[in-house]
Write a structure and sequence with these properties.
With 262 residues, the chain is α/β, with parallel strands linked by helices. The chain has helices spanning 2-9, 42-51, 61-67, 94-102, 117-128, 147-163, and strands at 11-13, 31-34, 55-58, 84-87, 106-109, 135-140, 167-172, 176-181, 186-188, 197-204, 210-215, 224-226, 233-237, 243-247, 251-257. The longest helix is centred in the middle third of the chain and has 17 residues, at 147-163. It holds the Pfam family TPK_catalytic.
Length: 262
C-alpha cells in the first residue's frame, strides 16, 4: 500500500516547482489555501496561484485576497477569483462576500466553534478532493504576528498530516517555506540550482524529540538527538543541491526564499 510505503521510505520534496515559472508540473496539482493573514509578497502569491488548481479562502482569507488588489493592482482583481470561501464567516466582510458571490464563488458556512477556519477549510477540501495518491496543499499564511496563532498553525499542520499520510502541506510564510519531514528518508531537491532559496535552513523538532541524520548541509549530523530545550539545528546552511534527512519522528524543515525569484 502507498500509505505504508510512504511511512517506510519517506518522501521527496521539490518546493522550487511551486515557484519557477515554466517549470514542469508538481507531482500533483496543488490546492491553494489562503489564510486570514497579510499577503506581503505579490510575486510569490501570483506564482503559487498559477501553479494551483483549486483555490480556497479560509473565511477572512477572502478579505486578504481582495485587499491586495488596490492601487495599481486593482484592475487585476477579477483575474484572481477563488474557487470557494469557507469558514464560520465571522471575519468575512460584507462587501467582499458580495463581490465574490457576484462572480459565482461558492461561499459556505460552518458554525462549529471547536475548530479553526483552517481546519474547516481543510475539511472542505477533503470532501471535494478524495483520491488515493499524494496530495499537496499550499498554505499561504504567516508565522509572524501572534505567537499562539503561529504555533497553532504548526500544530494543525501535523494534525492534518497525521490524519492523512497521503497529505503534504507546504507553508509559504513571509520569507520561507516550511514542511514536515517524517519517515525514514526525505530528500529535498533543487535547493541551489533553482535559485529560489538562500542557503539558510532549519530542522526544528517542534513535534517532539527525534533522532536525525543529514547530508548536504554545512553542519551535517549522524544519529543526532534533537529536542526543544536541548540541541536543535537552526541556522544551518545548504551546501548540496539535494539535501537528505533521515528522522525517527516528524520534524519541521524550513528554508528561506530569496527576495526576488528569477
Amino acid at each position: 500500500m502507498l500509505e505504508s510505503r510512504v511511512a517506510a521510505e519517506g518522501r521527496e520534496f521539490s518546493p522550487a516547482l511551486f515557484l519557477i515559472q515554466g517549470a514542469g508540473p508538481p507531482a500533483t496539482t496543488p490546492v491553494l489555501l489562503i489564510l486570514n493573514q497579510p499577503i506581503t509578497d505579490f510575486d510569490t502569491f501570483s506564482r503559487l496561484w498559477s501553479r494551483s488548481g483549486y483555490r480556497i479562502c479560509a473565511d477572512g482569507g477572502a478579505n486578504r485576497l481582495y485587499d491586495i488588489f488596490e492601487g495599481e493592482l486593482k484592475s487585476r482583481r477579477g483575474n484572481y477569483v477563488p474557487s470557494a470561501v469557507h469558514g464560520d464567516l465571522d471575519s468575512l466582510r460584507d462587501n467582499v462576500r458580495l463581490y465574490y458571490e457576484s462572480l459565482g464563488v461558492e461561499v459556505t458556512q460552518d458554525h462549529d466553534q471547536y475548530s479553526t477556519d483552517f481546519a474547516k477549510a481543510m475539511n472542505k477540501v477533503s470532501s471535494i478532493h478524495t483520491n488515493s495518491s499524494l496530495r499537496d496543499i499550499i498554505l499561504l499564511g504567516t508565522l509572524g504576528g501572534r505567537v499562539d496563532q503561529g504555533l497553532g498553525l504548526l500544530h494543525e499542520m501535523i494534525r492534518e498530516e497525521t490524519r492523512d499520510p497521503l497529505l503534504r502541506l507546504w507553508l509559504f510564510s513571509e520569507s520561507s517555506v516550511s514542511f514536515i519531514l517524517r519517515g525514514n528518508c526525505n530528500i529535498i531537491r533543487a535547493l541551489i540550482s533553482s535559485q529560489c532559496f538562500t542557503r539558510n535552513v532549519g530542522l526544528v523538532p517542534i513535534y517532539g524529540p527525534a533522532i536525525i541524520s543529514t547530508s548536504g548541509l554545512e553542519w551535517d549530523v549522524k544519529d543526532w538527538d534533537t529536542q526543544m530545550g536541548h540541541q536543535v539545528s537552526t541556522s544551518n546552511h545548504v551546501v548540496a543541491d539535494n539535501v537528505e534527512v533521515k528522522t525517527s519522528a516528524p520534524i519541521l524543515f524550513t528554508v528561506e526564499r530569496v527576495p526576488t525569484i528569477a
